[in-house]
Fold this protein.
Amino acid sequence: MKNTIIASLLTTSFLAAPVSAQDVAGDNKEQAGSWLADTIVVTGARERYAVPSSSASTRTETPLIEVPQSVQVITDTLLKEQDRRQLNEALINVSGVTPTRSEENVFISPIVRGFPAEVYLDGLPIFAGNQQAYDPSSLVGVRRIEVLKGPTATLYGGGLGTPLGGLINVVTARPDDEMGGYVALRAGSFSTINPYGELNLPLGEGIAARIAGEYQSNDSWIDLVDGERWSVQPSVSFRPGPDTELVLQGQLNHRSSLEYSGIPAGQALAGEIDRNAFPGSPVGQPRTENDNRMGTASLRYAFSDGLVLNVTGRYYSGEIDEFGSFVSPSFFPADPASPTVYPVAPVTMDTRTKEATFDANLMLRTQVLGGEHTLLFGASYDWTSFYSAMGLFVSNTPSGTIDLADSEYDLIYTPQVPVNSFTDDRFETFAVYLQDQATYGPLHLTGGVRLTSLKFIEDSNIGVDNDSTYTRLSPRIGATLDVAAGIALYAGYATAFRAPFGFLGFDSPRPETSNNIEGGIKLALSGAGVSGTIAAFRQVRENVTISDPDNLGFFIQSGRQRASGLEVDLVWEPSPAFSLLANYAYTDTRDDGAAPGDGLTRVPESSGRIAARYRVLDGPLSGLSFGAGITAFTSRELTLPNTIAVPGYAAIDAQASYDLGRFSLGVSVINLGGREAFDPFSYFGDAIVAPNQPRSAFVTLKAEI
């Protein structure tokens, strides 16, 4: 067998190195055996690469073992082998992350280490306010997902400020000079039909184009809830010389479904109501539509090997037209004589978001003061316009009643138009930042600071009128120490801040802040095939905005919330034939303001996952691979103060595929054991839940182009 030269193409955020290795060889069966790093074979046959790198935490190419922060990377290989088609499905592979269910992603953001995180695309923000307005439910064209745990203010920010709990960076594919692509068809449970594909096309010397696309229609295990989504992602790259790259990317996304609002938790957990009931007025209720469009330009110019300029900009436009109906034990409780019969409240909501965001940074590598330094100087600007309007049960009159124990589904939906409340907000952020990564033998130091000026204007017809400017200095410092080959100790401290969104109260709002201190062990043992992080952390969030218990519809800033715990993220790949992923998180959360000593909502105290994959690389069964995983978590609180919790559960998933060269066939099963349980759900603040996905099976046929 010929010796192999493996080049680790360190797929980066939008602002760093231009090419993703998976763009070239992501589906090659002999390279698909890595959950640690994206690799490309330059010559010859298979060889492993065991030290992953990322630019997510530092915006410079840095081995993860030298980064003083827990950063986990979900690679294209893992996404494909586990048949992960949506962001929430992928994030279970990272410890300490509470994903957002796809049905509720316009209401709540994912949670990292107990606090809200933000979803970025290729290193740039997409404004969400207190919602996850951008819907990255389609993972077609995605090359990796990078999860940065803890406050991430030094290098990132926009909209209302900087990520308080963590950052989830979705990295998309870029064109390259290799002709190739694939088309695939996935089908299965709940009438799911899901064609998707990618095509990369060289157009000439230094010019290439790529297009990725996906369509899906499906029903649901929840009564009446069906939906569809599509995504089209064209891009073109220009490389006039080895030192210059310009990439233009577009993205158009659409998702629509009958909006689901969850069911009352107490009765659902007691088995008193139908777990799959649709709690609303479905007759004539339009689908909720989520549409967004964006265009991105990225320029990378290398003056020399040690001096590189990155400039990026994006314009985003999104519209969400929501038509919902819901039961609310708080607003409209059931009659005690018929406790499963609830009034149904219709609601109409319209959201319009526009955002222009820009970032430029200059990276300089130099030797000074006796060490090797990587300096990063940068500036960013973000302008956001956010309009949100709501029509909610005019005159406090429900549209009828529904029996959740025996639903007839004959209630007619009444659109609440014109809207009776709105907010019209503008946000403008300007920031400059400086970072230094210094190496002195086995010691790697990282320090940075960001100065941010955030101006926001909030106007509404409900009393939320706020015109404020915040100026904040956000520092970060950390170090890693190599104690042996492939083993390092690390410690880090970081901060973040964020303006309160839509605050309506009797006191002037203060910015929410967070800080995080963490430390642990990093592994990159290439010989043993072991990579990962073991981390202990303590994170504090100040000036938290919550509902005012004494004044309905108003808010207060309760003071402090905190989270501390232990996280383990490990991957073991002793050979290209076998991968084992294991993660575990112990997360102790506490509120020190409105409900002293109570745990934060939605966050399990213990959670973890273990998943394995075996690939047959030689012999008559070459091309066959199969895997399985189990995900488990303990109970999760639904309210603050704590009054009710959802019990924990475990679910098994399994996958198999057979690669016939140009063609491949895959099968995946979700919830193999058929476990019936509930997950927390968010809709107007009630204690509600949603049923977990029952046993589901899917088949994928794929053809290389």
Observations:
- The radius of gyration is 25 Å.
- Confidence is low (pLDDT under 50) at residues 1-32, 38-51.
